[in-house]
Amino acid sequence: MSDTTVRVRFAPSPTGPLHMGGVRTALYNYLFAKKNKGTFILRIEDTDQGRYVPGAEDYIINALNWCGLSPDESPVNPGKYGPYRQSERKQMYRQYADLLIEKGFAYYAFDTPQELENMRDLAKKAKMPNWQYNVISRNSMKNSLTLSEDETQKKLANGDPYTIRIKMPRNEDVRFYDEIRGWVIVNTNNMDDKVIFKGDGMPTYHLANVVDDYNMKISHVIRGEEWLPSAPLHVLLYKYLGWEQEMPKFAHLPLILKPDGNGKLSKRDGDRLGFPVFPLQWKDPSSNEVSSGYREKGYFHEAFINMLAFLGWNPGDSKELFSIEELIEAFSLERVGKSGAKFDPDKTKWFNQQYLRAKSNSELTKLLMSTHQINADVAYIEKVVSLMKERASFINELLLDDYFFNAPTDYDQKTLRKKWKANTPANMQLLKSKLSLLTDFSAESIEAEFKAYLSENELGMGAALPNFRLLVTGKGMGPSMFQIAALLGKKEVISRFDNGLLKIAAIKEETSI
Ligand code: GLU
């Protein structure tokens, strides 16, 4: 492998939907690969059959595609380092576990789950709650280090269940350089004899991860901070397998924190505070519980990605809006921080709003027409879009106001209570007759006519405009009334005056508003 060949992998386990933290990891891998003219790989880490969730792999692939982070090599688009699912690489791992045993860096452990449980219980009683299988305790366990060679061979020949554990050396410093955190040094006395190969014939994450990264010629391992404690073990495995020269560089990304900064962002926070934590909607196959997704909430994938890029990285100046090409250009691991990044749901909306505003009216109209059944012509929708755009954060909000399509059937209570006075009906009749005489029903001439009406009748804008809006739209707020009126046209506006005056009179009579 030449030093300049960048090959990075995103290696999720298909144990459920991809959390947005996972998408951030994929994004940084993608940006790093593209920036360095390298290869972005998706590897599915499905060695833990007990945690496999049907549909999760498809979800991961669909989510990456929606985000525009399509892998260059993946299970569905294999390159020459396949297979890209660990379950399909099963037969590759055993030889390395055997090699480690042969070299004295690993051993067979025959302890049953029950025996391990008993040890933990005993330790708990002796006020040592975190019992570990390690350099000390392994001496009192049932393994190929405590049993004679004969006994071990007998057990193996007998088909007794076993696992293979790494044999942690006593009191050695494991050191490696993390591209984000600098030097990391961990003493092996603080590390346990992790299982690297299981009784079911599958490697554990640790062995599979190292073997695959080596065989797939991965140059940089960019992953979440939760894997930092595993990294010293991985470094030892590279050493023991004789692959030190080929060991990838490591970069452990900062955590994504809850909006208040207190701990890691979880699905529960999303449920509690009302934002999605998954890119796409997910239906749990066993409980049928549905979790919302950014896509279904109406986020543009560009906005979602732009927001995610800033959770842990910044460009070093005040620019916030980045296309994916600009992100590729600006991204570097040096500008990824060590400390956790707080997720900000409001800022996430803000990003979407910026992307919405940046799209042309015709583009937004096309999008709307492709996703909604709308009974109006394109030119009309485009005008509605132009009026609503500045007030919306999501594309769905562009058509939120039904009055563009139908006369109001109810009227904003607050405006009715605060602004609709005894003399309002008469004043509105006057406005109606003025408007009905207009030949040019453009926003400008409606506005001029309205202002003339105000001064002729000595009325204030604050008293008259809300009632005008109420009659035509039924609402207390909205975009420019003159533009709305112009768009609806004279006939419709006059008819809404007539209707509204009647309906409001009835409401006023019926209720005490
Ligand atoms: N399978 C691990 C995960 O689910 C991958 C960690 C790594 O990138 O090494 O995140």
- Order of strands in the sheet with the most strands? 3-4-7
Query: What distance separates the N and C termini?
Result: 79 Å
Judging from the principal axes of the Cα atoms, what is the shape?
elongated
Helix percent band = 40-55%
The total strand number stands at 13
Helix count, DSSP H or I runs of 4 or more residues: 19
Mean pLDDT: 95
Low confidence ranges: none
Which class of the domain at 413-510 in CATH terms? Mainly Alpha
In terms of quaternary structure, the protein is: single chain
Based on CA atoms alone, the radius of gyration comes out at 32 Å
The fraction of residues assigned to DSSP E strands is 5-15%
Report on this structure.
This protein has 513 residues and is mainly α. Helices cover 43% and strands 10% of the residues. It has 19 helices and 13 strands. The protein has a three-stranded antiparallel beta sheet with strand order 3-4-7. A two-stranded parallel ribbon has the order 1-2. β11 (282-283) and β12 (290-291) form a beta hairpin. The protein is elongated and about 110 Å long. The N and C termini lie far apart (79 Å). Glutamic acid is lined by residues 11-13, 45, 205, 209, 223, 227. Residues 11-13, 45, 205, 209, 223, 227 line the site of glutamic acid.
